[in-house]
Design brief:
The chain is mainly beta. The chain contains two helices and twelve strands; from the N terminus they run E-E-E-H-E-E-E-E-E-E-E-E-E-H. The structure holds dTDP-4-keto-6-deoxyglucose.
Amino acid sequence: MSVEQCRWLDFPRIEDQRGNLTFVEAERHIPFAIRRVYYLYDVPPGAARGGHAHKQLEQVLIAASGSFDVMLDDGYANRRVTLDRADRGLYVPRMIWRELDRFSANSICLVMASAYYTEDDYFRDYEEFAGQARTP
Ligand code: T46
């Protein structure tokens, strides 16, 4: 996997005088079958989340409110992106280390995931992850 395979997904945005509406349709907008949805909220100023990679899990992250940064690392290269639009998702494939920080006040990180939660799917040690990522 490469950080270049992390990509933006643009969702429909319907605007009217009452505000905006964005919808996400499973097979149409998300490149995997959604098995789980979770969200990060009430993140205190200066806090960081993530700091791990997944062996198999694929995810789409959305800044449903506010903004935050995601640092993506494939074991060779890294890339930092800002999520600040509720109508745009970031697709993160398996075997990408991620770290989330710079959460704005009242931000919400909404995540759609390809599998149920299991701790067995996590690399929580960077060197262990990088060793595996660099193995041909
Ligand atoms: C990711 C970033 C963006 C569950 O019980 N079920 C779940 O679905 C999740 C995601 C977590 N948990 C438990 C596991 C830990 O005891 O909640 C606790 C905190 O999880 P974690 O430290 O992994 O949270 P983050 O915010 O560092 O990472 C999460 C996801 O784990 C991860 O896949 O990409 O959000």
